[in-house]
Amino acid sequence: MAARVPSDALGRRVLCGTERATVRYVGSVPPAAGIWLGVEWDDPQRGKHDGTYEGTQYFKCRHPRGGSFIRPNKANFGVDFLTAVKDRYGLNDDQDAQQGTENTFTFGKKTVEFVGIDSVAEQQRQVQLNQLVDISVRECAVSQAGQKEEISRTCANIRHINLSKNLISSWETVTAIASQLQNLETLNISENKIRFPSTSTSVSSVFSKLRILALNQTEITWTEVLLCAPGWPALEELYLSSNNITVLERPENVLQTLKLLDLSDNQLLDGNQLHLIAHLPRLEQLMLRNTGISSLHFPDVGFGCKTKMFPSLKRLAINDNKISEWSSINELDKLPSLRSLQCHNNPLMDTEKNPGTLRQLIIAKISQLEVLNKSEILPAERKGAELDYRKIFGNDWLAAGGNWNPEKNKPNEEFLAAHPRYPSLCLKYGAPEEGELKGQQPSTLKNQLLTLTIKCPEKPEQKPVEKKLPESMTIQRVKGLLYRLLKIPGSELKLSYESSKLEGKEVELDNDLKPLQFYSIENGDCVLVRW
């Protein structure tokens, strides 16, 4: 007997053994007899073609070999929500039927039958279902809501549901389940490939008490988030990781109650996308792990001022990204409420071999930080970091126009852009004294002058210049010198050098905090400048 195919099979999610797929075609596939299902596999390695068979295209796949035809009896279309709950919590009808054969008991030679025990079991089951508050039916093949009002009659007290990794294929199914649970506060429907509304929907009270919503790996777009958001008036936490979200739009009159937003593992177009969500008034925690961002910038204010963007943001995670410039760390000091930062696994972290020094630099640059990479910053550590920072860059401050005399203290813009907190640290602890800075000078042997040629290979009109520079001079200070020569901001300059001994070999000068001697630069070498 042929398996029955649901009337709404097209677009439904199915299980075939342990593999998941989406039904893309229902019908005949000549010359083979009978009805076939054309499916697109979640794992394209499972497939055979792109929906084309013997020259006829029956359906389309994202992957050229992501499709197959299977017989309906090989496809599991899943179960309704209540069936999954009963199965998971041992409250299904099959178990009661089995218990029905055990409703007779023998006392000696006499057999006694307990009349009405089935109805008692039914009542007990109803009571038990109604007591459920927090349930998980993860990976239970849930695909439908079931009969109308059956959930509200049976287990109306549920507040927290884990529906992740099931066979739910549409937002309507989610709404049909949630509409029967008046007190629903937490909903996790991650790892379901769901069709979301493409146009604005009428606002209902279905999710009026929903505080936490997880939509990780559901293929939702930010546009679809905003279309559904009017229905989430009390939402506080929204998890959207791994959804191929690349561009954001500004939420207008929605998500205004949001306190936590997770956009991790979405490759955002650039860091400027964050400006579009920067005015969510209550957002306290933003997770941006592995989003591909290479820089952060809050352009509404200059250094030393607090931005109006992200007014409530306390905790920020930007680990596993492509941030390589200290300017992005400087920008974070503009956030008025930032207290906790996670930033490991960025190229910037490789600029300093000593993790302790790297930590000190970040602490000194962000004034209000209390926790860095999950480790608390104690007051003594902050004070030490700020005092060391003030000493380390003291000579750069003097070279840039800094002075112990307040009337003559006019460090240039290049220095202030690289060290925006330096003036406030001088106000806090006083300007570094001459004796402190002398201790920063390397010994005479290490402080030898190097005669270097400075060239701009891509600007032939710029003539090469010969300069004598101390080998203890940091790359950052070299950029400051070049700023005065070329009038190009150091942040835009890319430096490298060619050794006079190794012709044609170019070494990148990629760490602003390292001295020239770190790169083994010698007399007669040529520094190449690009921008």
Automatic annotation (TrEMBL):
Keyword line: Acetylation, Chaperone, Cytoplasm, Cytoskeleton, Leucine-rich repeat, Phosphoprotein, Repeat
Cellular component terms (Gene Ontology): cytoplasm; cytoskeleton
Key word Cytoplasm present: yes
Domain of life: Eukaryota
SMART domains per record: CAP_GLY
Extent of the signal sequence: none
Compartment(s) of residence: Cytoplasm, Cytoskeleton
Family: Belongs to the TBCE family.
Name of the featured protein: Tubulin-specific chaperone E
Gene that this sequence comes from: Tbce
